[in-house]
Design brief:
By secondary structure, this protein is an alpha+beta fold. The protein contains 21 helices and 19 strands. The protein is globular and about 75 Å long. The chain starts with a helix and ends with a helix. The relative contact order is 0.09.
Length: about 575
């Protein structure tokens, strides 16, 4: 498929306000995609790589502006692109406003064609392959190589192609196509039931592959898709809830401790898994966002290889602990979680241990459709001392099984309160309430899992702007603008400036500065990339902010390094909190 065709279809979808019509347009796009169907199914969502793949382009706005400027001509600089962005407000419109196709340079020949861009038309496959090459560029000179490759694509692009190329590169496609849209479009395009497509997506986390298999193999192929050890899936999520609500909806509640740690998904296979560079490993560990964190957590690797005997996929958390094994605050986990260098030194400073509460796969068997209690029993058997036979394993007390999160099942509110009190006294956040009969639904935040926290109510907000400070804080960003998700957009809910020390402001400035999209005086606009956990006293109706609500007395609690903007809280949740 020519990239011009994709861009034209994307423009049609972008202009369509009706959800059903958007599904129909995506359906037709997939039906016409032929050999590029996997790439098209990703591109239309604004993805370059499969959802399970943590590979990123690792190219910021400034590099993209540089590539656009070079392709636009000798009289255009990055500053010109940035200034036009400040006026226009959207990078796709900025890219489409330039005439490309006549610039010379190393990148001018990317993907074929001559330096004037008059060779063969740019194809979807060429764009995908070039972006994959760009993502693989590392080390000295990688920045220039990335800009050259991107310049080569822009230099061959028409205005409409440039519009959607720029959006794709900066993860700002935003044409109204979400995961549900592509799911429904796959079902409609290839006449397969939506529930079979949904299941295939849950086990594969790969929309392109599911689209191809639905087209080529139909229901039989979809039903044959299973979890793969080594390929992460989205984590099942919880929403806030009360004991009363849980016991009213379920006959009884399964109760677990809520750990103040970071979510992990452990994949283990004694036969070895591809680690991405051609070699094999027995253990891989992924974050909540499916980013691989194996190297940063050697304790988890050691635990798996000392404890497990058969292939398994386990869901749990990694918790920082002191010398006595008592849990430490979440901030301590963050000192380890994304560490790429000096891991051994970091391990000396902060120790971590894994705790698992679910089993998705064990010894060749997928367990997503099994009830929670059955999965926990299977988890228990996976973690029991490998030297014990079945009878001996049954005799091992749950609290003596290393790495096992304890599970109580009860319909007694007083017993739940007692478990909650014990969890808090032990240094945990509180408890989780789960439906004992619930299946495991990757990526879903439903009523089957509920988190109960006694602390001040918090909300996870995207940081969309900030201001440079004054006086001794003049080199720090502060007074951060907060927003929540509203479909593909972000709506503001207030600003936070309290609860932040100078030391923390320095850390936040270092974290946020690479995401500055534009500046005017002391004010900066930030691309949505960082999530803050913010405490508040009350949610009020307010015409001041675009959400229609304002957080009263907001206070910075911490950075949610384990969350992407898509995982932040929604306007819908804000409305629920306001109304209760």
């Amino acid at each position: 498929m020519e990239f011009a065709t994709f861009a034209d279809r994307a423009g049609t979808i972008d202009a369509e306000p009706a959800d059903l019509e958007i599904v129909a347009h995506v359906r037709d796009l997939l039906a016409d995609a032929e050999g590029e169907i996997e790439v098209v199914a990703r591109f239309v969502q604004g993805r370059v790589f499969p959802a399970w793949d943590s590979t990123t382009l690792d190219i910021g706005p400034s590099a993209c502006y540089e590539a656009i400027a070079r392709a636009a001509g000798q009289n255009v600089g990055s500053d010109d692109v940035e200034e036009r962005l400040a006026d226009v407000g959207e990078i796709g419109d900025v890219a489409a406003s330039y005439e490309f196709g006549g610039q010379q340079g190393l990148g001018a020949f990317t993907g074929g064609g001559d330096a004037g861009g008059n060779g063969d038309d740019l194809t979807v496959r060429e764009v995908a392959d070039t972006l994959a090459e760009l993502a693989a560029a590392e080390g000295s000179g990688s920045h220039d190589r990335k800009v050259d490759l991107l310049f080569g694509l822009f230099n061959r692009a028409s205005s409409e192609e440039a519009r959607y190329l720029a959006r794709l590169v900066l993860s700002e496609m935003r044409i109204g196509v979400g995961e549900g849209t592509v799911r429904d479009a796959i079902a409609a395009a290839f006449e397969v039931p939506e529930d079979r497509v949904e299941r295939a997506l849950q086990v594969s986390n790969d929309y392109g592959r599911v689209a191809r298999i639905a087209r080529d193999e139909g229901v039989t192929g979809l039903d044959a898709m299973d979890l793969a050890v080594g390929r992460p899936v989205q984590a099942m999520l919880a929403q806030a809830g009360t004991v009363t609500d849980a016991l009213e909806e379920w006959d009884e509640a399964a109760v677990e401790r809520k750990y103040d740690g970071a979510r992990i998904q452990l994949h283990y296979d004694p036969a070895g898994m591809d680690d991405g560079d051609g070699s094999t490993v027995e253990t891989r560990v992924f974050s909540r966002n499916m980013e691989e964190v194996t190297d940063a957590l050697p304790e988890v690797v050691e635990f798996a290889e000392e404890t497990l005997e058969a292939p398994a996929i386990l869901d749990g958390e990694v918790v920082a602990v002191d010398d006595d094994g008592s849990p430490l605050p979440f901030q301590e986990v963050l000192k380890r979680f994304r560490r790429k260098h000096d891991v051994a030194k970091a391990r000396e400073d902060v120790s971590v241990r894994p705790v698992f509460f679910d089993c998705l796969h064990a010894d060749g068997e997928d367990l997503l459709e099994d009830p929670l209690t059955t999965r926990h029993d299977r988890l228990r058997s996976v973690l029991v001392d490998s030297g014990a036979d079945g009878d001996a394993g049954d005799a091992v007390a749950d609290e003596d099984i290393e790495g096992l999160s304890l599970l109580w099942t009860t319909d007694d509110p007083d017993e739940i309160e007692s478990i909650d009190a014990d969890a808090l006294e032990a240094g945990h956040e509180g408890i989780m309430l789960k439906d004992p009969e619930s299946t495991y639904s990757p990526g879903r935040r439903g009523k089957h899992w509920r988190k109960r926290k006694p602390d001040v109510e918090t909300i996870d907000c995207i940081v969309t702007g900030a201001e440079w400070g004054e006086g001794r804080r003049a080199t720090f960003l502060g007074t951060f603008e907060l927003a929540v998700r509203a479909g593909d957009e972000f709506e503001t809910v207030g600003n936070v400036a309290t609860g932040i020390t100078d030391e923390k402001l320095a850390e936040l400035t270092e974290l946020l500065e690479p995401h500055i999209a534009a500046e005017e005086g002391q004010e900066v606009d930030l691309e949505p990339a960082v999530v803050f956990e913010v405490g508040y006293e009350e949610i009020q109706s307010s015409p001041t902010y675009s959400s229609g609500y304002a957080l009263r007395f907001p206070r910075f609690q911490g950075v949610r390094y384990d969350k992407d903007p898509d995982d932040a809280d929604s306007l819908e949740r804000l409305e629920r909190l306001h109304g209760r």
